[in-house]
């Protein structure tokens, strides 16, 4: 899907929808970036600080020199999204001891967690 001069992959569109990120905010991040760095997979990370959160857009240029957005996320994540739940899970997981981590992994493998 095109939005002005950006092409969004299906993955990027799905992640933006799941993360509650507007396409306009992703475009603003790309156009008016606060910081950009090379991504380890050959793309470029564009970051923009908004009032109380930061959006990161990962994009690369195709053979026609068009910018293609691979992924977009927000930090901190919106409450209630899978990203927010995962962040809380990792906070809790990192504070636990060895046996509790082993128990968590065991429950995950059984599909109980």
Write up this protein.
A hairpin with a 5-residue loop joins β5 (54-61) and β6. A six-stranded mixed sheet has the order 1-2-6-5-4-3. With 113 residues, the protein is an alpha+beta fold. It is built from four helices and six strands, in the order ββααββββαα. It is elongated. It has helices at residues 10-19, 23-31, 82-95, 98-110, and strands at residues 2-3, 6-8, 35-38, 44-49, 54-61, 67-75. The longest helix is centred in the C-terminal third of the chain and has 14 residues, at 82-95.
Helix content: 40-55%
Compute the number of helices. Answer: 4
| Structural class by secondary-structure content | alpha+beta
Placed side by side, the strands forming the largest sheet appear as 1-2-6-5-4-3
How does the overall form come out from the CA principal axes? elongated
Global Rg: 17 Å
Question: What's the count of strands?
Answer: 6
Note the run of SSEs as H and E: EEHHEEEEHH
Distance between the termini: 36 Å
Poorly predicted sequence stretches spanning 5 or more consecutive residues: none
Query: Biggest β-sheet: count, sense, barrel?
Result: 6 strands, mixed
Kindly state the mean pLDDT as a whole number? 86
Q: State which percent range the strand residues make up.
A: 25-35%
Question: Which characteristics define this entry?
Answer:
113 residues; six-stranded mixed β-sheet; 41% helix; alpha+beta
Furnish the topology, listing elements before pairings.
Blueprint: E1 2-3, E2 6-8, H1 10-19, H2 23-31, E3 35-38, E4 44-49, E5 54-61, E6 67-75, H3 82-95, H4 98-110
Parallel strand pairs: 2-6
Antiparallel strand pairs: 1-2, 3-4, 4-5, 5-6
